[in-house]
Specification:
By secondary structure, the chain is α/β, with parallel strands linked by helices. Helix content is about 25%, strand content about 25%.
Length: about 375
Amino acid sequence: TTFYTTGTTGLPKGVYFSHRQLVLHTFAGRAALSGSGHGRFNQDDVYMPITPMFHVHAWGVPYVATLLGVKQVYPGRYLPETLLKLLVTEKVTFSHCVPTIIQMLLQAEAAKNVDLKGWKVIIGGSALPKSLAKGALERGIDIYTGYGMSETCPLISLALLPPELENADLETQVDYRTRTGRPVPMAQMRIVDDNMNEVPRDGKTQGELVLRAPWLTQGYLKDEDNSKKLWHGGWMHTGDIGVIDADGWLKITDRIKDVIKTGGEWISSLDLEGLILQHDGVAECAVVGVEDQKWGERPVALVVKGGEVDEDAIKELVSQYADKGVISRYGIPDRVVFVDELPRTSVGKLDKKKMRAEMVRHHPPGPASAGP
């Protein structure tokens, strides 16, 4: 197979995979998802993907479904009413999608009278906000995170709970289910510094995530320079910043190109978005760094309203977390811009490259901001 990355942080690049790689990826996915416990995918399941086939092989799950011989339901356009109807009439038990889709379904009027209990859903493509995971769990959806990218075919890790956590309290489950997970069979993960030295597995020390697995793309199609950068040091560079704890749980904190460098500190746009999304009046949020003469960059929050909220309320919320030491005071956004919708790519990911360009075009930086 050959296809192109969605280009959320740069120009699209061609990636390619051999038949052998697709087979190994399918076996690894089957091994990772088999067995008893939450979130598993077995022969008695009914499968309905809510991810386009052109989005990294629909995450490779159709191959696993075909290997198992399970019933497969393909919904066409992702309309809430259609998806919910199929969920009931076809007795769907296993799906996967980006966070936008599950949020759309939970907010749909038609969902109020539908029993969602026991529906297993893997979330990928972008970070799963804790507030969204909590809302899904409260409706009975067995929701958890999967991680991968176009270059990885894509499956690398899953946030499946170990048996001792399956009956944990809601807050603990949300914390683990929204992490990036632990590696699937045959996938290796390391967090490294700029010199490719592995950093401590303490859940705190950040670095770039690098990978090895039999199914990773060998390079970018007809792009020798970027292929060398991708595989510098014999490991595939993801461009993602993260931490790994002593138990092997990975948490992606940001993309290298999305992290906000302000006042000599790195601020995670994902962490900041997660905090802002806790406000009841916020439906969607994206945070980008905008050039600042004094601080290098300053965070700007783009917010879609879901109720009563204003700029001061959002800044006050983030300020409270800064006072508690959850986030640096440098993370308090200079501006909050309310928008009708957030720009997205063809597969539903937040298009931060477009957002930054829009901020420069319509909200040009003035004098150096006061900052924190």
